Amino acid sequence: MKHLLKLLDLSTEEIIDILNLADQLKYEQKHGIPHNILKGMTLGMIFQKASTRTRVSFETGMYQLGGNALFLSSKELQIGRGEPVQDTARVLSRYLNGIMIRTFEQAEVENLAEYGSIPIINGLTDFCHPCQVLADLQTIREYKNKLEGLNFCYIGDGNNMANSLTVGCLKVGMNVTLACPEGYYPDKQILDFTRDYENFKIINDPVEAAADADVLYTDVWASMGMEDEVEKRKAAFKGYQINDSVMASAKSDAIVMHCLPAHREEEITSKVFEQHAKEIFDEAENRLHAQKAVMVRLMANEG
Ligand code: CP
Ligand code: NVA
């Protein structure tokens, strides 16, 4: 593995290896065992969109591994004034040991990897959010002690989260059911990928999709960059919510997950959110551990 651009690029073995290392790094951090695996190294973090979890978990993770992290707002970089990503990639490769980028177009992340000579990590694009899903899989395995054979249900927009969850969950052997309204299905590339999987379904009814689920997941109705569509989307997604009816359809020990930030009373009720806050914030914590594992796998030999 040279980069983390999208989960479509990773084998099942690579995903499981990252989860195992994430568990180990989490255990070591909780027991005060220091690790200086990335001593002297610097991660550049380019942000074209807002972030709380991604920024803080990458920055903290890098410090915990003995390295440094630089926050690079695209507004202040020349990239924000039109310097091509191909040139930015070649310049930053001369200073840094890795780049994490959060942006709009997936092509920008892929270009950075093509022109740069250091590992590139996708910290969210309109197409996918691989770091979040690695943390999600780590969390699901912690709660259920396995991944294979679990019933996973996602309710809401067929967005970047739905794209990455579909790929990640299918690759580790989970059964995936999505409930999305017509016109808001996942990307065509993802739907093409699912053709090889009989254990994938996409339907329109959230309660039916949740039947027998071990894991319920949702995300906002309007993602970053879709601010103009908020009202239209509120109408389109009405009812695509994790609420008591959806919970009653799932297994009685189902866990509830959300990548955050959440919009209460839209995609999830406050009641269900608070009843499952433990899972949701364990999931947020695991961003730190999963991303440390990704950085170790990609950057440990770059020094
Ligand atoms: N889930 C997630 O990526 O959160 P941030 O947008 O706060 O980074
Ligand atoms: N789908 C959301 C995820 C945020 C972590 C967005 O792209 O805004």
Key terms:
four-stranded parallel beta sheet; binds phosphoric acid mono(formamide)ester; five-stranded parallel beta sheet; binds norvaline; 303 residues; 9 strands; single chain; globular; alpha/beta
Order of helices and strands: HEHEHEHEHEHEHEHEHHEHH
Structural class: alpha/beta
Residue-averaged pLDDT: 97
DSSP summary: helix tally: 12
Terminal Cα separation, in Å? Answer: 16 Å
Cα-atom radius of gyration: 19 Å
What percentage of the residues does DSSP assign to strands (E)? 5-15%
Ligands, ions, cofactors: phosphoric acid mono(formamide)ester, norvaline
Low-confidence stretches: none
Instruction: Summarize the main sheet.
Output: 5 strands, parallel
Fraction of residues in helix:
40-55%
Q: How many strand segments?
A: 9
Overall geometry: globular
Strand order of the largest sheet: 7-6-5-8-9
